[in-house]
Amino acid sequence: MGQMIEFSRPDASACRGYLANGGKGCPGVVVIQEWWGLNDQICGVADRFARAGFNALAVDLFQGRVTQKPDEASHLMNGLDFPGATHQDIRGAVDYLRRLDGGGKVAAMGFCMGGALTIAAAVHVPNLSAAVCFYGIPPREFADSADIRIPFQGHFASRDDWCTPAAVDALEAAMRAKGATPELYRYDADHAFFNERRGEVYDAICAAQAWERTLAFLARHLV
Description:
Elements: E1 3-8, E2 14-20, E3 28-32, H1 40-51, E4 55-59, H2 70-78, H3 82-100, E5 106-111, H4 113-124, E6 130-134, E7 152-159, H5 165-177, E8 183-190, H6 204-222
Parallel strand pairs: 3-4, 3-5, 5-6, 6-7, 7-8
Antiparallel strand pairs: 1-2, 2-4
Helix pairs in contact: 3-4
């Protein structure tokens, strides 16, 4: 449904991404990958957004590298320039989608590593109108969720040993202490429950519920 494109970062260098067009005048969604890379599953999420009436751009943060091996994925994630990904790649994607829609509204959303970068984008990237995070929280010294000033929705798993329930509680407390009203959902599921390619953790019921909530949230804040 979509295609690979190149777009400009703020520093004028090029970045690749998978663009799925929802149609003229559609709001935009930047889709941010897990640590596996820009694989077919993430491109499929962009396609789903396009079918729902959004222009979706999934950013290729690993520059074409994709893996199914956890050790290699960890190596790729640990080698990523997170400030560069936030301030250059993701911001460039936001700017591209805004130009595509004549200055319309754009949200960021992502999973695991991409969820952490979604929070970073919500803190640091201008012109974002909303953010949806799936089970990812960045280090506070890089991006403090309490500094988010746009509508924020989060989806988290109760059996997550990486983005733990305690970390989610701390995120919510920090945001509410600053007067924010985050829309947070907790699911009786495992980390990565939304990823239909990972049968050992995928939860179809929770994933469907999270998707419906995501679309409703973006419709309220982008359309």
